[in-house]
């Protein structure tokens, strides 16, 4: 299994209301992702917390955690990062965790030429964009579309691409 077992999914930024709810700034594709979990984790996965209720409010998740029933109790969670267990998540074919893409070696699908490594992923709405650091220190952006990304193998640590004409300035 590639990557870390526990994945950062958001941060508790403040309390909400008077019944011990917390407001979570999500670090996932959409706050609705958090609606699927009965259990989240704190302390890099070392401590499980049960989710009694979760709802979305203005692109934030409002969580009611079991045993947290007052504002005073909720305050102690402020600033804490929430994690999910990757084993409790089902990704569709062709979907990956961003942290598993970071560090992949990017190669040409036809020639095998090594371009560099993925250093970041930007979500644009239409499609993700991968930041590839080349050996000369430059960073080039490639769109995460099926015409460009031919194969991704997390276990091998490789992404094979077929650059569109003009994608890299120094090539045809």
From TrEMBL:
Q: Which InterPro entries match?
A: PRC_barrel-like_sf (IPR011033), PRC_RimM (IPR056792), RimM (IPR011961), RimM_N (IPR002676), RimM_N_sf (IPR036976), Transl_B-barrel_sf (IPR009000)
Q: Which family does it belong to?
A: Belongs to the RimM family.
Question: What does the entry note on its domains?
Answer: The PRC barrel domain binds ribosomal protein uS19.
Q: What does this protein do?
A: An accessory protein needed during the final step in the assembly of 30S ribosomal subunit, possibly for assembly of the head region. Essential for efficient processing of 16S rRNA. May be needed both before and after RbfA during the maturation of 16S rRNA. It has affinity for free ribosomal 30S subunits but not for 70S ribosomes.
Record-linked Pfam families? PRC_RimM, RimM
Instruction: Give the molecular function GO annotations.
Output: ribosome binding
The protein in question is named Ribosome maturation factor RimM
Carries keyword Cytoplasm? Answer: yes
- Tell me the domain of life: Bacteria
Domain (RimM N-terminal) spans 9-88
Species the sequence originates in: Zongyangia hominis
* Keyword vocabulary terms for this entry: Chaperone, Cytoplasm, Ribosome biogenesis, rRNA processing
Choose one Gene Ontology CC annotation of this protein and give it: ribosome
**Start and end of every Ribosome maturation factor RimM PRC barrel domain?**
99-161
Q: How does it assemble?
A: Binds ribosomal protein uS19.
Q: Localized where?
A: Cytoplasm
Which residue ranges traverse the bilayer?
Answer: none
Give an example GO biological process: ribosomal small subunit biogenesis
- Its main localization is cytoplasm
